[in-house]
Amino acid sequence: MERILSFDQLKKQYEAVKHQTDLRLLTLNQAPSFIQLPEPYKRDLSVRHLMVCADTGCAASHSLGIADLLEKTIEKYGLQDKVKVIKTGCFGLCSQGPIVVVHPERVMYTQLKVEHVEEIVQNHLRDGHYVEHLLLGAREGNPTTNYDQVDFFRKQTRIATRNCGLINPASLEEYISQKGYLALGKCLTELTPDGVVDVVKKSGLRGRGGAGFPTGMKWGFTAVEKEPQKYVCCNADEGDPGAFMDRSVLEGDPHSVLEAMAIAGYAIGADTGFIYIRAEYPSAIRRLLSSIEQAKEAGLLGNNIMGTGFNFNIELRLGAGAFVCGEETALIASVEGNRGEPRNKPPYPAAKGIYGKPTVINNVETLANICPIILNGSDWFRSIGTEKSPGTKVFALAGKVNNVGLIEVPMGTTLREIIYEIGGGIVNDKQLKAVQTGGPSGGCIPARYLDTPIDYESLQVIGTMMGSGGMIVLDETTCMVNIAKFYLEFTVDESCGKCTPCRFGNRYMLDIMNKITHGQGTREDLDKLSQLGETIKEASLCGLGQSSPNPVLSTIRYFRDEYLAHIDDKRCPAGVCTSLLQYEIVPELCIGCTICAKNCPVQCISGAVRQVHYIDQAACIKCGLCFSKCPKKAIIRK
Amino acid sequence: MSMVQLTINGLPVHAEAGTTILDAAKSIGIKIPSLCYLHLPDVNVVCQGASCRVCLVEIDGRRNLAPSCSTTVVEGMVVKTDTSRAVEARKTMLELMLSNHPHNCLFCKRRESCELKALSAEMGIDELPFQAPVPEEELDLSNFSIVRDTTKCILCRRCETVCTQVQTMGIYSGVQRGFHTRIDTAFHTPMMETACTFCGQCVAVCPTAALTEVDNSAVVFKAVRDPKKTVIVQTAPAVRVALGEELGYPVGTNVTGKMVTALRRLGFDKVVDTDFAADLTIIEEATELIHRIQNNGVLPMMTSCCPAWIKFLEHKYPDMLPNLSTCKSPHEMLGAVIKAYYAEKLKVNLDQLVVVSVMPCLAKKYENNRPELSDGTYADVDIVISTRELAGMIKHSGIQFTNLPEGDFDRPFGESTGASVIFGTTGGVMEAALRTAYETITGEKLEHLEFEEMRGFQGIKTGSVKIGDLKVHVAVAHTLRNARQLMDEIQNGTADYHFIEVMACPGGCIGGGGQPYHHGEMDTLRKRASALYTADEAKVIRRSHENPDITKLYQDYLGEPNGHIAHELLHTHYTRRNKH
Amino acid sequence: MACSGLQSKFQELDQYIDNLSISDKGSALIPVLHRAQTIFGYLPQDVQAHIADRLDVSTAKVYGVVSFYTFFTMEPRGRFNISVCLGTACFVGGAEAVLKEFEKELKIKSGETTSDFKFSITPVRCVGACSLAPIVMINDKVYPRVKTSEVAHILAEYDEM
User: Fold this and answer.
1) What range does the domain containing A310 cover?
2) Of B4, B22, B113, B562, which residue has the fewest beta carbons closer than 10 angstroms?
3) Nearest by CB to B67, which of A322, A344, A508?
4) What's the ipTM?
5) Residue A35: pLDDT above 90?
6) Is B552 within the bounds of a domain?
7) What is the pLDDT of residues B487-528, one digit of tens each?
8) CATH, residue A358
9) Distance separating alpha carbons of residues A65 and B377, to the nearest angstrom
């Protein structure tokens, strides 16, 4: 691509390439439409774009191999002039991956294996017949040729993830075909920096990293600082276990983040941006590095962007495995080459950030919303979502839900819609027990709050928080005490250790949780947990400690009966806490094969050959080996 | 400065903008407890990590409690320090800190000055809801100055802050994270093998017994109680204006007379004055400076009486070692003279002679063990004890300090001038040297003996003194951060000095690592320095070259300043060391 | 020769440091540590001391940073580093049992390396592929939806390597 020397030139470039991706948008949101293709596609039915999800998730399931084989097979059949294979970003329906979508008919093939490639190329591409058994829904007995109409996709509003699944993220041209860098050009040539801040303020966009602070306000604070050197920083540390929204955006649409950072730089008066990205995202790192180079070569980043005299350079900074570095002051410490230890605020990063300079720190998803806001206007953004929380939120839906993956919905969507309509309900039709939001900083929402419309405030009222977007669905087989303990183990591991309440308090809370899950808890322990938890929250130095007791406190609030079962009855209702489980041999089913006794590591099973065997409960260490080895399933666990 | 109005516990407070809630509360008589916070403004020592969370208060409108040491007042702020929410939270912080802290206070070195113990008593801690095993005892006894006991560490991070920010040495770092965080040297290296300068500032700020001095009291007691030993003790200038603090006197009291008497009662055979040796140092050093100026010698010349500064230079700027004066530090000079000259006069065998120095300093405990500071067999100074150790010895000997009569130092090493006594504060050595250099070069008497630009706690002070035809450019720095800045300027060629004084400790020796704990009170350092200048003014003889006993020593024994004997006894050399 | 191999590694590291465009090299400590770990495989004392010297920061500080971040290791890792993701989704999907199975098969605990330096087990917190829980990564290869019964089979892939 030639170097862009002016905004006019970019606009011309956009006009030249905007139809490149038309094939992928032809029948969007319309009824079954293969027959109704407009010209010229109607005449030449062999022109195809095959979108293959190359996101880390599907790549782990060999989607890259599938893409390669598709190309080779297409060549084998001589279709390479008409059929393009495009590696794209995440479609969101990760549980059905690897996914390939055939355009223009928008047919989605799911759960693909390398063995399926031949069929698809032969039957569909060459002969024009869909491969029924590979269609979305086919394995559930409900094949569909119109994936847009499936609830999972129909009920989403994709703004931050708009280009994921649509474009080849490695192609700057394809990004430009979707109005890429037009927002930046508009800002640089038609708006003043204050004007840009105003637009973002009016849009009501709030930080999507979890805290929900109004983005425009943050930009405004930084813009008024008189210090000449300022920075923009993208927080791509995404440390919440169970969250991968940011990773998918960075892999699937990296330029949207780069462009937004440049816009932020213009708005606040910064010429340098950092992307602080966790080292556990090697694909995203590679993708960002090459996209930055692309943009620089094209004159869309770097010095004298689009000939306007505005300079903006972006550097990557890698994390090194510390969740706390997602907290902004710890992030700053890390960028400066130190241990990721937070510091007291104020001063806020807007006044004193990286290297002591005014810095705007924004989450990836927040930035991914900026360009659409600039192009479509703040009123448009406000028309989506709720009054206090305009726009959409990307959630990473995981756990015991059928449609595990990435979704983007307007704020105000209820949990019920998300889990049952978009999420496809609970796996194996089990009972929903709770939904965990906000990662280790959040709480569990019990089933009775399913009709809560999701926004920042409503979640806080019921004792949890939006967080970065991780949403784990838990069913009746989950022990809420154990889940709370799991989160606490995480925060104990990740605590930086600087302040007294977090360093000691979380560890002592964990000690109590271990006591409880091992059947040694007391009622007094429960009181201690609550008291200590509240103190840690109000006394800690940073957001990690201020929210780490949340999983425990919210499960005590909503699932007290489970705690009491562990404490009073020494019983785990969900059958998870191994120390509280009892393994028993059902006499009627036992055939005396002695396999259990032979395998028992503590030899606590007695019985003669062909006689009913018996487990000595006092000696049993609850390892579960006998349970798994019994050929007659004669051992029960309760 | 604009003023801010706020209320604390319902009481109105007016404070300057930028004041912390902690200080604002103090101004109306409310003491909010604090632990990791330590601020010495004049000398730029700032420990403000807000990590211990002991100083938490409620602020209306804020969901969480706020650390009052790091939160500045805002117009209309409503602060509450005494609600049960704030009080209980602060108490919990202490309980958590105590949960894995050793409980053997009865035998602990800091039992009379431990800040943790004091807070625990203040808050009425009477039981611990949480307990964890105390980590295994791990003492670092590798060196002559500092003892490290990590089991007593409460992670206040003051030592790390002071070593990294104030002294720019970075010997300590937080290591690992979470519950397992501890303060350590690189790879748990014994301190003797690190680049530690032994300035002891970490010890000066440690609230517990995690960092303490190597205590030589027992060795000294043994010596003075041994009838076969002749023990001679000398005291540094900075000791006499601080010792009283531990023995019932207000900060800044000059207790020289009673100190001498106490030392005699402890059993020392002779009590002499390091101040005398300071005068001696001035003669040698001024002569050396004049020689260098007049003979194109290495300039700027730099003072060499601070052993922490010496070690700093040896590690970090070994190429600048030739700039150092070759003069030994005063107490080492005196030790050398005592052993080479005075022992014979006393008719004491060197095997039976013990020289003890009482210093405000912990680096001197390393210094007196330097191999070059001896004649090959006998070290110039045998034992160094700190001001704190001396106070302890006095207390343990049933000596009622306040009831003692005044005493006088023993001659011929007891007379000292006003120039020598100000050695103990930053800029003092420079002033003393200028008084002598000026009068020696010009042959004229100075009308005004005070060099005001060399006084005060500013990090780097510079000035020019017209001495005859020459304009002598001088600089004075204290704390190694400022020393480093000066060294960088010199190496970059952006500085042009003839003579530089460096003290490693904030405020100079009065802020030394062996002094009574200042507990973060800036006034303590101010008053100690002021007492030294007052002592100078009160002296009849205020120029080192007018000390009659010094003149006599040269006549009787030393010969010429910088002469052959002087060079053998009173001068030394330095060692290049690894950077890290 | 082992010696010159080490020397060239230090040279490679020095080249990286020299080419840093940041004026305050001390703030580049973490990128330098990442590169050093890539070159040497781990960060022993002498490498850390060398970095301290070149970046003009104290050795204690380098040690403090290395020991803070889980990515950095002072012990050599095995040729094949097994990372079992312990993120929430993987946890809920049974990651603990998978980890225990690896520990059983290799006879080492999480955080340890086999005596022949072939395998090491490193816990990792969420690699962001939660839909494929539980995830195991062996070096750069990702194994999705791992069952305990598959562990032995997965390890067998590396028998000849």
Assistant:
1) 172-381
2) B113
3) A344
4) 0.94
5) no
6) yes
7) 999 999 998 999 999 999 999 999 999 999 999 999 999 999
8) 3.40.50.11540
9) 80
Please, which pLDDT band fits residue A184 given cuts at 50, 70 and 90?
Answer: very high
Q: What is the DSSP letter of A393?
A: E
Is B95 one of the annotated active-site residues of the chain?
Answer: no
| Structural domains in chain B (count) | 3
Residues B541 and B566 placed together within one structural domain of the fold: yes
CA distances in angstroms from C46 to A616, B191, C31, listed in the order given: 55, 18, 18
Average per-residue pLDDT for chain B: 96
Query: Which residue type, as a one-letter code, is found at position A248?
Result: S
State the Cα–Cα distance between residues A241 and A440, nearest whole angstrom. 8
- Under a CB-based contact definition with an 8 Å cutoff, are residues A490 and A470 in contact? no
For residue A117, is it within any domain?
yes
Residues of A with CB under 8 A from a CB of B: 322, 339, 341, 343-344, 346, 492-501, 503-505, 507-508, 528, 532, 535, 537-541, 546
Residues B250 and B223 occupy one common structural domain: yes
Gap between the Cα atoms of B81 and B20, Å rounded: 14
Active site (annotated) includes residue B173: no
Q: What share of chain B is helix, strand, coil (3-state, %, to 5)?
A: 40, 15, 40
For chain C, the first-to-last Cα distance in angstroms comes to 23
Instruction: Give the model confidence (pLDDT) of C64-89 as tens digits.
Output: 999 999 999 999 988 898 988 877 77
Q: Residue B59 forms beta bridges with which residues?
A: B79
**8 Å CB contact of B187 and C45:** yes
Residue A515 sits in the same domain as residue A590: no
What is the C-alpha end-to-end distance of chain B, expressed in Å?
Answer: 44
B177 touches chain C (CB under 8 A): yes
B-contacting chains (≥3 CB pairs under 8 Å): A, C
The whole model's pTM is what? 0.93
For residue C116, the tally of other CB atoms under 10 A from its CB is 8
Q: A332-369 burial, b if ≥16 CB within 10 A, otherwise e?
A: bbbbbbbbbbbbbbeebbbbbbbeebbbbbbbbbbbbb
Closest Cα of chain C to A195: distance in Å? Answer: 33
Could you tell me if residue A9 is inside a domain? no
Is B459 part of any domain? yes
Percent of chain A with pLDDT over 90: 78
**In this complex, is the C-beta atom of C114 within 8 Å of any C-beta atom belonging to chain B?**
no
Q: How high is the pLDDT of residue B518? A: 97
What is the chain A residue with the closest CA to B62? A538
